[in-house]
């Protein structure tokens, strides 16, 4: 029994450099500071998990992204890690999508890319950071879902998976039938880095580019994609207000420590 | 908008999550906010609670916290979170009662349930909100949902102009809880679960509790360490201070990434939100993604060797100095007073 796995990966601005993003107070527009794109961190763990499952059960790993032409890079990175083929969903019509419209296009793209037993996602992306896409993707596909997953055991011959799903203060054990959408947390594994060999191999692997013109039978209405298919709108960005005024306590460490403890006692905090 | 031109945004439905049979705190926070928003729009506040049975005692609590009506869905199969069954129940209730706004807590469960519900009914959902308010946008009253974006210090305002209901998940611990008023009256409406085997393709078998010393939510004092402990070779100093001050430890992302603090105790946008009486942050630069997790603490103390570190901008008291000197000094002062 081999498993057909698809992993959704997303290209995001490097979160390590988010502090370069600034707000122009006059125009209210965000200056993204030319931050280089990377693969969303959680998604690399999703790719790793797919590779591990393939190593145990056999099968194939397809990576898919919806994004601009340069998002091809995150597919190439996943292929270099060991994925088998890539699908790039790229069309101007997809632009400006919120999570609902993103899920709609991802679902249509997955359907047109073939049949799959397991779709893996990262639990959340660092730029949108909504964590909404995986559950919405599952709904759109009509599949069950498990999010916040930190352990997956696929019982391929029984057509189901046993997973551990994190909650506050513990976890839930969930038994789910295939096909299923599973969103993984970073804790699930340590991902491998591409080897030179992997990078060379990746060059020979196929990346299919799919847009509206090449995919007429996906059944997705034009109004369901991109900005037009997005029920939510961003209407403004503002700087978080600052509320506190700091009182600095100086002096030698011992004196400063004493002074602080005394102030905290006076305020009833200790 | 309906025929009368009234935007159907007035009636608010709150999903009141239960954990181990008890209401989660965020349910009260949402109800308090809803009782703020709804009457001004001429609307009502309802809550829905799903559980295995005995939900009526909780229902009375929700009424005291402002729900005019509580829908109770009881079924022995719903003792644990069952993703598909819960989704179906909520979608049906929303279709039947047609609220204008649906609010849920952005707990790990709410963050799974809300997007599925929104997708099934085809409406907009805004995740992890830190504030909700009404505002005139494009010439009409709209619910504005505020979420921290990018660096966390940029707040993004989101609306859902056309689709109803407007849906939002709200971060636990951010909104005020409000005080219960036992004299409030309300209606308790039992509704059947109406679920079958087909709603259990994903079946939660059991809930396993993992020992987590010192609950962060209940802690009166939290001492939180950051990457600044790198030079100290780990957070043993932090642990000493926590013991001396009677608090519990937590950390910023780098401290958790380094393995000094368990990831379940990471503070911030991707971690926990806490509001203790005293929050002491040590060796943390004060990135908004981190500080957003404790902005509601009653008192904040910052210790960092960089006097210009942004952490001092959000603190009540600050000490600029090397934590390897300050933290032992603090611990000694506290220990000597014992
Ligand atoms: C989408 C997103 C979500 C994020 N979510 C979170 C989150 O939930 N929680 C979180 O914590 N982070 C989060 N981050 C990361 C966050 O932006 C910061 O990178 C992180 O909080 C920085 O942690 P730090 O302050 O410990 O480390 P640093 O920024 O490296 O700061 C270390 C500090 O220690 C001080 N220091 C060094 N040595 C000493 C010494 N000997 N004595 C005293 N002080 C010393 C330095 O002056 C410095 O101020 C997120 C990032 C992104 C992009
Ligand atoms: N444009 C996209 N292309 C492919 N996968 C995506 C896209 N957006 C979101 N995802 C997947 O959904 C997960 C959660 O994203 P989000 O809901 O935006 O936080 C990501 O980790 C990806 O696996």
Q: Oligomeric state of the chains?
A: heterodimer
CATH superfamily of chain A: HUPs
Provide the residue-averaged pLDDT of chain B. Answer: 92
Structure summary, number of beta strands of chain B: 18
The largest sheet of chain B has its strands arranged as: 7-11-6-1-4-5-12
CATH evolutionary superfamily of the largest domain in chain B: HUPs
List low-pLDDT spans of chain B: 1-6
Instruction: Please give the order of strands in the largest beta sheet of chain A.
Output: 11-10-9-12-8-1-6-7-13
Order of helices and strands of chain B: EEEHEHEHEHEEEEEEEEHEHEHEEH
Shape of chain B: globular
What structural class do you assign from the helix and strand content of chain B? alpha/beta
Largest interface: A-B, 75 and 93 residues
General description of the model:
The complex is a heterodimer of chains A (about 270) and B (about 350). Chain A is of the alpha/beta class. Chain A contains 6 helices and 15 strands. Chain A has helices at about 40-55, 70-80, 100-115, 135-140, 195-200, 255-265, and strands at about 5-10, 10-15, 20-25, 30, 35-40, 60-65, 85-90, 120, 145-155, 160-165, 170-175, 180-185, 205-210, 235-240, 245-250. In chain A, the strands form 3 sheets. In chain A, strands 11-10-9-12-8-1-6-7-13 form a 9-stranded mixed beta sheet. A two-stranded antiparallel sheet of chain A has the order 2-5. A two-stranded antiparallel ribbon of chain A has the order 3-4. In chain A, β10 and β11 (about 170-175) form a beta hairpin. In chain A, α2 (about 70-80) crosses α5 and α3 crosses α4 (about 135-140). With about 350 residues, chain B is α/β, with parallel strands linked by helices. Chain B has helices spanning about 25-40, 55-65, 85-95, 110-120, 235-245, 255, 290, 325-335, and strands spanning about 10-15, 20, 20-25, 45-50, 70-75, 100-105, 125-130, 130-135, 140-150, 155-160, 165-170, 185-190, 200-210, 220-225, 250, 280, 300-305, 315-320. Chain B has a 7-stranded parallel beta sheet with strand order 7-11-6-1-4-5-12, with helices on both faces. The chains are: A alpha/beta (about 270), B alpha/beta (about 350). At the A-B interface, α3, α4, β9, β10 and β11 of A face α3, α4, β7, β9 and β10 of B. β14 (about 235-240) of chain A pairs antiparallel with β10 of chain B, so a sheet runs across the interface. The structure holds flavin-adenine dinucleotide and adenosine monophosphate (AMP). Adenosine monophosphate binds near residues 42, 66, 132 and 134 of chain A. Adenosine monophosphate (AMP) binds near residues 8, 9, 106 and 125 of chain A.
């Amino acid at each position: 029994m081999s498993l057909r796995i698809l992993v959704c990966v997303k290209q995001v601005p490097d979160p390590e450099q988010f502090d370069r993003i600034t707000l122009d107070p006059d125009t209210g527009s965000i200056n993204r500071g030319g931050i280089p794109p990377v693969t969303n961190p959680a998604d690399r763990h999703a790719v790793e998990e797919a590779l591990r499952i393939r190593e145990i059960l056999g099968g194939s790993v397809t990576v898919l992204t919806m994004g601009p032409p340069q998002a091809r890079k995150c597919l190439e990175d996943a292929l270099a890690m060991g994925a088998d083929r890539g699908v790039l969903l790229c069309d101007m019509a997809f632009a400006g999508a919120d999570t609902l419209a993103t899920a709609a296009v991802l679902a249509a793209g997955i359907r047109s890319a073939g049949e799959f037993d397991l779709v893996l996602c990262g639990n959340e992306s660092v730029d949108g950071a909504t964590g909404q896409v995986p559950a919405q993707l599952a709904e759109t596909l009509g599949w069950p879902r498990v999010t916040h997953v930190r352990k997956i055991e696929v019982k391929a011959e029984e057509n189901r998976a046993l997973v551990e799903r994190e909650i506050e203060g513990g976890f839930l054990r969930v038994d789910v039938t295939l096909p299923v959408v599973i969103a993984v947390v970073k804790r699930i594994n340590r991902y491998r880095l591409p080897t030179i060999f992997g990078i060379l191999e990746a060059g020979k692997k196929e990346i299919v580019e799919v847009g509206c013109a090449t995919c007429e039978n996906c059944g997705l209405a034009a109004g369901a994609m991109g900005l037009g298919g997005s029920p939510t709108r961003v209407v403004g960005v503002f700087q978080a207000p600052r509320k506190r005024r700091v009182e600095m306590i100086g002096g030698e460490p011992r004196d400063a420590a004493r002074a602080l403890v005394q102030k905290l006692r006076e305020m009833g905090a200790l | 908008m309906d025929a009368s031109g009234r935007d159907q945004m007035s009636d608010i439905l709150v999903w009141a999550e239960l954990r181990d049979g008890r209401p989660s705190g965020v349910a009260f926070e949402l109800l308090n906010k809803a009782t703020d928003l709804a009457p001004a729009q001429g609307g009502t506040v309802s809550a829905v609670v799903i559980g295995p049975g005995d939900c009526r005692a909780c229902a009375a609590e929700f009424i005291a916290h402002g729900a005019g009506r509580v829908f109770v869905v009881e079924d022995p199969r719903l003792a644990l979170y069952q993703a598909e069954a819960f989704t179906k129940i909520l979608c049906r209730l929303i279709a039947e009662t047609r609220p204008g706004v649906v609010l849920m807590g952005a707990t790990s469960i709410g963050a799974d349930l809300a997007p599925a519900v929104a997708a099934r009914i085809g409406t907009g959902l805004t995740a992890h909100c830190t504030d909700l308010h009404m505002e005139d946008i494009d010439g009409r009253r709209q619910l504005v949902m505020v979420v921290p974006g990018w660096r966390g210090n940029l707040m993004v305002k989101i609306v859902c102009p056309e689709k109803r209901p407007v849906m939002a998940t709200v971060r636990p611990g951010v909104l005020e809880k409000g005080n219960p008023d036992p004299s409030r009256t309300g209606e308790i409406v039992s509704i059947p679960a109406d679920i079958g085997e087909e709603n259990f393709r994903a079946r939660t078998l059991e809930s396993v509790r993992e020992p987590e010393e010192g609950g962060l939510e209940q802690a009166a004092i939290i001492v939180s360490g950051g990457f600044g402990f790198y030079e100290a070779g780990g957070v043993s100093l932090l642990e000493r201070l926590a013991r001396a001050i009677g608090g519990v430890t937590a950390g910023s992302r780098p401290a958790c990434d380094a393995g000094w603090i368990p990831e379940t105790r990471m503070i911030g946008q991707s971690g926990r939100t806490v509001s203790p009486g005293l929050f002491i942050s040590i060796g943390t630069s004060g990135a908004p993604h981190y500080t957003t997790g404790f902005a509601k603490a009653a008192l904040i103390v910052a210790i960092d060797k960089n006097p210009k570190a942004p952490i001092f901008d959000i603190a009540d008291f600050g000490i600029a100095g090397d934590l390897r000197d300050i933290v032992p000094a603090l611990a000694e002062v506290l220990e000597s007073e014992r």
